[in-house]
Design a protein that fits this description.
globular; about 290 residues; mainly alpha
Length: about 290
């Protein structure tokens, strides 16, 4: 549980890192290079641990290719959605639906039925994320059906690779190996979309941004995320990851000096309450 919350914290640093770096590059290029460097970092961990045979075996599994497609689809659809409907609505449609989809999908595939505590804490978190997002909406925001569908698709893709990662991970196949194999496939699928702007990273600031986003906020974060999907249900992992927008909001205020409204504080408070309830329940029940 602590590992997942730390990974969500690292995920939440990406927006602030991009702003303070000053690197002018498209979102799709950032997503592409981040996924590629992060995947190579995960592969390096598996190779260093002499588990190269695991990767070769995983690449022969159809589910790992589906998981990789889910990783690539999440990155692509998230940025398409936020580009069409704005960051606020796009984030709401993708992140808020992720936990529900992960919990229900895992249940549908034969996993445990989500508990009432999980349902309650997830709904509170979604309410908090809704308030947090609503507070950031501008009066000129437009409703775009294609953008909403893309963002919902991103949430579905997130649920797919979270649930499949949990199902594939077994004692002989550590989560790091599963993530390394699927993320490398996903990065290769996404590479053609963002490779055109890679030259923008050839600078000191660009290199530092790539190292942080790739090795820390992806490789390091997903090593911790992998520990979560090994020991927790997919729905619980997805709900705990809703700490990400809270961290992003706090960093925006403290580091970038953005203003925060009363609604934003209420939204953060609701999500924090949800995570606290889920954390207490997880510790007591061991899952």
């Amino acid at each position: 549980m602590i590992a997942v919350l730390i990974s969500a914290t690292l995920f939440g640093t990406t927006g602030t890192a991009r702003i303070i770096s000053g690197v002018d590059v498209s979102s799709t290029s950032i997503a592409s290079v981040r996924l590629l460097v992060g995947a190579l970092g995960l592969v390096a961990i598996s190779v260093f641990a002499r588990r190269w045979s695991n990767l070769l075996m995983l690449w022969r599994k159809p589910l790992v290719w589906v998981m990789g497609a889910g990783v690539a689809a999440y990155q692509a659809l998230f940025f398409i959605g936020t580009g069409l409907v704005g960051v606020a609505v796009g984030t709401l449609a993708s992140l808020a639906l992720g936990p529900l989809m992960a919990g229900v999908l895992a249940w549908a595939l034969g996993g445990r039925r989500p508990s009432r505590i999980w349902w309650g804490s997830t709904l509170i978190a979604i309410a908090g994320l809704t308030v947090l997002t609503w507070s950031g909406l501008t009066s000129g925001a437009e409703f775009n059906v294609l953008g909403i569908l893309a963002a919902v698709g991103a949430g579905t893709a997130y649920a797919v690779y979270t649930v499949l990662g949990s199902r594939i991970t077994i004692p002989s196949l550590p989560a790091t190996d599963v993530l390394a194999a699927s993320f490398l496939l996903g990065s290769l699928m996404l590479l053609p979309i963002g490779a055109s702007d890679f030259h923008a990273f050839v600078s000191t600031d660009g290199t530092l941004l790539v190292l942080w986003l790739g090795l820390v906020a992806t490789t390091g974060a997903y090593v911790l995320f992998g520990r979560g999907i090994t020991h927790l249900t997919p729905g619980t992992v997805a709900t705990l990851n809703l700490a990400e927008p809270v961290v992003a909001t706090v960093l925006g205020v403290l580091v970038v000096h953005e203003s925060i409204s009363g609604l934003s504080l209420i939204g953060c408070g609701l999500i924090a309450t949800s995570l606290s309830v889920l954390a207490i329940s997880t510790v007591r029940n061991g899952s």
